[in-house]
Amino acid sequence: LLPLETLNNSYQLSSIPLQLLFYINQFYYIFYFVVTLTMIVYKSHVFSYPDQFLALDLTLLCIMATLEVLRLYLGSRGNLAEDEGPLGLSLAIMIGSIVLSVYFLVWQTYVLKVDVIINSVLLLMYGLESVLQVLTIAAVVG
Amino acid sequence: PSKARDTAWERVRSGPAPLTDVAKLCVCDLLVAQCDVNCCCDPDCSAADFSLFTTCSVPIVTGDSHLCSQKAAIYSLDTDANPPERVFELVDHVNPSVFCIHATNYEQALSFSSPEIPTAENFDELLKKFGSATFRAEPDSWSMNSDVPDPSDANETYRYEYGVPIQTVDAFLRLPSPVVSSWCSDANPAGFLVHQATKCVRSISVENCGNIQAVSMLFYINSSILAVNISVQSIVVQSLNGMRTLLNSSSVLRHPMIVDELCINIVLGVSYHITYTDTGEIIEAAASFVLGAVNKEALTIQQSFEINFTQVNTNPVPFSGNPGYVVGLAVRAGFKPQGYPFPIALLLSALNTNKYGQLTILQSTANQDCLTAQESRTPVLFGYNMISGCKLRITAAMNCQPLAQVLLDLLMGQSFPEYVASFGNSQAQDVLDWVPITHLHTSEQRISNTFQSSCQIPVALEIEVKWTKYGSLVNPQARIVNVTATTTTTTLKQLPLGRERTIPITTSVVFTDISSPAEPGYKAWPTINAKLPHDFFFPFV
């Protein structure tokens, strides 16, 4: 368990590392989204990218962006308000995000080296965030 | 065992499996079981052969260079060693770029797809996909919207265009014609709407006249034009001395037979009449035959063939030009039936001046006497000014009025038309394409004494046809604009008994070109088109 700090004789349950990670995550995700979109455009020009695969990849990328925005908002709000509801919901949405990230890492039509790199970093971030979120939920509930 | 046979059959049907092992691929190995020169990857070459090479024409064999890591076979010649030997290395080629393909989940991405081997089942589909001049690079399953099939293809077998050979059940409708010499060749197809008339020579002998197919009627009616049977329209029998008789019953097929050392019922001429609709379908076909006879001495016969086309519901009036009149072809004319606001096609052509709907004038005969002239008329040909006439011998006993009527009939003919076609291909149903004939009357002499109501007899008919050039300057078409028929009359003076007078009666046709000269046209001055782009004041407008 993390050492609980006291401030005005009350324990702070919000986790600072988690909030840091959320902050970094939103900027990284913008970068990730731009790079993935650019790579899809590049692939469709250089390689033969049939229309239905292209449509599938773009749709999944948009879904992932939506999920990410929701997840970060709920997680950040739950962490700051020390509320386990949004935190739990955010954790649930993270499962979807992880699946989508694995798709872009392994099951995409063309997986370039740059895709491998940014998806690995994203998955690493998800892993750290999930651990911290679980701990924070436990602290808030318990 | 059956499953193995099926998989082997599958492999045969889909072609050999693509070779992807770089160690075994060799592009320069062209000669089978022989060593190719300077080809370091050729498995047929021995070490002794390698020592004679100067360079390696194929130094490296790799897969797709986009992949992040791939196998590469590198061939090189080690010239330092004595004798030179070939060095073969199999390495992993790494693409340093960050945009290299790490993995792909799409099999057709990096290799050419092996084409389908045509079999009886998929042949029609493959023909539909690849049978035309172009086809899409991606298979049809990729595209969202496939091309809409051309609706005219549905009836293509029945619709003809000009010049297309007429199809019959087995091949094409053939019109025998002379090819290089005058011998008949049976390979000339008849083209749609192409009027052909050919004459050619065929060898024949009386003994085997029954065996030669091309002289029997059956040969020419046997092939049916795609659901339309060729019917026999008429049979004319030509005897040995050239006399022709039209047979009454033309429904019986007559085969060549040997009768009294003569071979009769030999086809000497065929004339096909094809009726078509305006959508290009052939609905009727008829053939008229001329049958003749040959005797023992004859070695060859001359056959003549003709084909002509008529549009359905029109009478076969030949065009005098398409669309403008052609110089030398007859001027077409006709009537408008009484009471009808517009001519009806059949009626119009039925009442024409002559059978073919042509404007005619009196024809001069050797016997120049008008009254005994044989009513022969000649058609007016476009562009040819004509003059004809006869001499009228007037005696004292002639009465004026009947004489005037006879002369009028002589000049005008039995039924002088009211309208002349302005274009060579004017149809009877287009009223505006027909020009009315204006009639004028002039008198040769001024009637000096008005007391005598002397009768006038027509002595001259002058038809003036004014035409103009119509259409483009490069290809002007002749179009008749105005037709004026001027009848000149003269007074018939009573002759004293016993005296005779001869007056000439003339008919003339004059064609005048009234086309207006071309006007020069100049290109418009160039204008400066200076406009600001519509979003020039972007944030404010």
From TrEMBL, chain A:
InterPro entries: Uncharacterised_TM-17. The chain crosses the membrane at residues 20-42, 54-74, 86-106, 118-141. Its main location: other. It is found in: Cell projection, Cilium; Membrane. GO terms for biological process: non-motile cilium assembly. The keyword Transmembrane helix applies. Keywords: Cell projection, Membrane, Transmembrane, Transmembrane helix. The keyword Secreted does not apply. It is a multi-pass membrane protein. This is TMM80 protein. The gene is Tmem80.
UniProtKB/TrEMBL annotation, chain B:
Transmembrane segments: none annotated. It holds the Pfam family TCTN_DUF1619. Residues 16-123 form the Tectonic-1-3 N-terminal domain. Residues 159-312, 321-513 form the Tectonic-1-3 domain. One of its GO terms (cellular component) is MKS complex. Keywords: Cilium biogenesis/degradation, Glycoprotein, Signal. One of its GO terms (biological process) is protein localization to ciliary transition zone. Belongs to the tectonic family. Part of the tectonic-like complex (also named B9 complex). This is TECT1 protein. It comes from Odontophorus gujanensis. The gene is Tctn1.
